[in-house]
Amino acid sequence: MIPMNQNFDVWQLVAGIGVFLFGMILLEESVKALSGKAFRRMIKNYTDGKMKAIGSGTLVTAILQSSSAVSLMVLAFVGAGVMSMENAIGVMMGSNIGTTFTAWIVATLGFKLKIESFALPLIGIGGIGLVLFSSSQKFFQSSRLLIGFGFLFLGLNYMKESVEVFAQGFDLNRIPDYGLWLYVLVGTVLTALMQSSSASIAIVLTALNSQIITFNIGVAMVIGANVGTTITVLLGTLGGTQAKKRVGMSHLTFNVITAIVAFLGIPVFVAFIKLLIDIESDSVIGLALFHTIFNVMGVILILPFVGLLARFLIKIYPDQKAVLAVYILNTPAEVVEAATAALRNEIIHLLAECQLYGVRVLKIEENIVFDGPTPFEKGRRRKFSIESLYENIKILHGEIFSFYSRLQSQKLEEGEAHELERIIFASRNIMNSIKNLKGIRQNLDEFDGSENHFLNSQYTLFRKRLVELHHEMDRIKQLESQEEQYAKLLETFVRVENMDKRFIKETMTAAVDKKVQEMDISSLLLVNRLFTQSCRLQVFSLKDLLLTQEQINNFDRALDMKTILDDEKTKNREES
Question: In the chain, how many domains are there?
Answer without folding.
Answer: 3
